[in-house]
Write a sequence for this structure.
């Protein structure tokens, strides 16, 4: 169905308002204080009647450094807590839960362990600001870092690492990550084993006054005016260190809050126990994956091994097109198994 520009812009503004309203309904826990700001990202579905549903929400501004912090964490640590990455992990959680609970409104079952995105739904990613990396630098050239960056591919897309506390992290910018999701779908390699055709975004909705369509190609980019009241401003001068994650299956009073990559309030001795990990951590999503694969009794399966089982031609093609892409080192980041003590609780 062809939609007019006016309809598309109205839809974008309506989605922005709905995302802000949903955020307002969440408990104040994890939200910025009066002099702090944060960013908001949300994955949203729109059906044939233009009904909007918020599937997942993420807030956050922080990213931790790389491999040194990862060792020994048993997949419990969230390195990248930028809003888009949190929202996307929450969306993956929702997908896993949909399949496990056999409640299929978004992912429709074709046959055993084969699913596809409900054909009456379109998926959008909303972000309350221009995503970090090339999109942010096009919006505000003054912020362009002196840090080195690479040309990612033959069409001149730029690869940026996220800044940490005075150093570059090993996490790629949200602009780079979003472009990868646009290309190869949202599900990730593990979940993709169960998905018939990759789960693609219909469009990006960005609160900005700049045209970012040269950065995000091959997708509708809708710019909206409605501003997030918790974004940076003259009063809100410091980034909030906490991240909120919420997804459709949670009540409004039970969002998940992390700080420094761990659940808020977790004592140091419990940080690397998988049963206390954030529901969005690698080990937590891996547990859902093993449940789906009916394989939970096998605690021998390492995350790294599971990743190698999933061959995805879109991933391969993406890597071929983007030879400079920074691959996650599986020997460091994927070197954990699911400990049996996580099996009893969720
Ligand atoms: Zn970012």
């Amino acid at each position: 169905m062809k939609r007019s520009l006016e309809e598309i812009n109205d839809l974008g503004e309506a989605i922005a308002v709905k995302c802000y309203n949903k955020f307002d309904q969440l408990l104040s826990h994890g939200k910025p204080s009066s002099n702090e700001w944060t960013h908001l990202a949300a994955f949203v579905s729109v059906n044939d009647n233009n009904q909007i549903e918020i599937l997942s929400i993420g807030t956050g501004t922080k990213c931790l450094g790389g491999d040194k912090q990862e060792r020994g964490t048993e997949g419990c640590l969230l390195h990248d807590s930028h809003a888009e990455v949190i929202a996307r992990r929450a969306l993956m959680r929702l997908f896993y839960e949909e399949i496990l609970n056999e409640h299929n409104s978004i992912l429709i079952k074709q046959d055993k362990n084969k699913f596809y995105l409900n054909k009456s739904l379109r998926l959008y990613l909303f972000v309350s600001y221009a995503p970090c990396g090339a999109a942010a630098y096009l919006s505000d050239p003054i912020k362009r870092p002196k840090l080195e960056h690479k040309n990612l591919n033959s069409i001149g897309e730029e690869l940026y690492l996220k800044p940490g506390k005075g150093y570059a992290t090993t996490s790629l910018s949200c602009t780079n990550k979003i472009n990868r999701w646009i290309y190869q779908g949202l599900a990730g390699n593990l979940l993709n084993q169960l998905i018939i055709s990759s789960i693609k975004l219909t469009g990006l909705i960005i609160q900005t006054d700049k045209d970012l369509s040269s950065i995000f190609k091959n997708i509708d980019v809708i710019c909206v005016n409605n501003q997030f009241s918790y974004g940076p401003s003259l009063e809100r001068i410091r980034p909030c260190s906490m991240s909120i994650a919420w997804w459709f299956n949670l009540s409004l009073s039970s969002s998940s809050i992390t700080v420094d990559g761990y659940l808020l309030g977790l004592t140091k001795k419990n940080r690397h126990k998988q049963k206390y990990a954030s529901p969005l951590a690698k080990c937590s999503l891996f547990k859902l994956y093993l449940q789906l694969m009916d394989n939970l009794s096998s605690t021998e399966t390492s995350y790294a091994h599971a990743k190698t089982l999933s061959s995805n031609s879109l991933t391969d093609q993406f890597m071929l097109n983007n030879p400079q892409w920074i691959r996650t080192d599986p020997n460091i980041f994927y070197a954990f198994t699911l400990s049996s003590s996580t099996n009893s609780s969720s």
Remarks:
- Residues 74 and 336 are 5 Å apart (CA to CA).
